[in-house]
Amino acid sequence: MPNVRVAAAPDALFRMAADELARIATDAASARGVCHIALSGGSTPKALYALLATPLYRGSIPWTRTHLFWSDERHVPPDSSQSNYGVAREALLRHVPVPASNVHRIRGELSVAGSAASQYEDALWQTLKPASGRPPKFDAILLGMGEDGHTASLFPGSAAIGEVSRWVVAPFVEKFRAHRVTFTLPLINEAANVLFLVTGEAKAPILERALTGNESAQELPCRGVHLRDGRLIWYADRAAASHLPKELQEGCS
Q: Which of 35, 111, 123, 184 is within CB 3.0–4.6 Å of 66 for a Cys-Cys bond?
């Protein structure tokens, strides 16, 4: 059965996710001296980032020993209002003591998105130092889910969904007539923890399909997230979870 944690409202959901992220970061830093987290884009996590920047949570994460990455990025410069990095910078990074050297953004301003993807793969090699033959293992990856079932920048029907060897690719997204830089499923599925954040009634039908249906990852990319040996947690507010079977809604708080 999927690990679904349902909150009565978005604010409660973000507190639950913040508590879990703080626990993961503290445990990783205590065990290995360092923690690696990949942030997500989109509108939903912005409220989580703002919460993490408050006095209540600012001291709960070992920022000086935490390295931050992004699971996807738009093909735009960092000062663009569309930049996933830019959103996190304004809501979180400017308010917490994370060293600049620990912030690893995707260079979306490069003229060739494929070059940004290749450079990001190199950054993963250098910072996470993965075991030979395995993708890097993040302590936590934050993900969202679109109303079409996409996650990161893996959209329905994209060739990037079937990628098996690359960790970061730059598919052309027909919906936006633009390239995106994104983690691939092999990299996501290597993580120790993946936290999906889903809010709002508009997401209810697609969340039900994602958790109870049998569609392929090509149809619903979020269904391609199956961690090799990690924990996959779905955080949903009551509105987003309203179409789920009752047994999946029992965690409502």
A: 35
